[in-house]
Design goal:
177 residues, alpha+beta, 6-stranded antiparallel sheet, 3-stranded antiparallel sheet, globular
């Protein structure tokens, strides 16, 4: 398959300025990604210029199989309270920051994958996501946005064509937000 022409280039201020707060990591390989949903209005708001890409190219980009110019996938490290106690070393167990873009209003926004496989912070988990959870997050984020409630919005949902194992086998997916 021919590589899509990059319509934009990622910036990476997090990787450049916070050297001790991340681990570089590549997204897991996905054999047959399929675009389930693409948020064209958000892509336009971000000034991404993705209109020329076909569905299969979008699936490759938003599953992490094709990394666009400037992309530098990394899992962020952080500390916080979890299960009633302070944990000094937590991090993105199934998320990868690809980079940032400047929107049409000048605001910088991170673009990240969720469910793209294990990272150094997965703590034994598979780093994957089920399609139901991905679509639920996509829909609820857009509903909240339409109600005027500030929230994280999703750019795309991509089926991985693989099963993830939770209580039972479920179809896998990756959310780009």
């Amino acid at each position: 398959m021919q590589e899509p022409t990059a319509p934009f280039c990622f910036g990476n201020s997090y990787a450049e300025e916070l050297l001790d707060f991340y681990v570089e990591c590549q997204p897991m390989a996905v054999q047959e990604p399929e675009l389930l949903q693409f948020n064209a209005s958000l892509a336009t708001e971000l000034g991404l210029g993705l209109e020329a890409l076909v569905s299969q190219d979008l699936a490759q980009v938003f599953s992490g199989q094709t990394l666009l110019d400037g992309s530098r996938p990394l899992a962020q490290a952080y500390a916080g309270h979890q299960f009633g106690g302070f944990s000094p070393q937590l991090g993105d167990g199934r998320g990868l920051l690809l980079g940032e873009v400047a929107g049409s209003n000048g605001d910088r926004r991170d673009i990240a994958l969720k469910g793209s496989g294990p990272t150094a912070f997965s703590r034994g988990g598979d780093g994957k996501a089920a399609v139901g959870a991905v679509l639920r997050e996509y829909l609820i984020g857009e509903a909240m946005h339409c109600l005027g409630i500030p929230t994280t919005r999703a750019l795309a949902a991509v089926a991985t064509g693989e099963l993830v194992y939770r209580e039972r086998p479920l179809p896998g997916a990756i959310l780009t937000r």
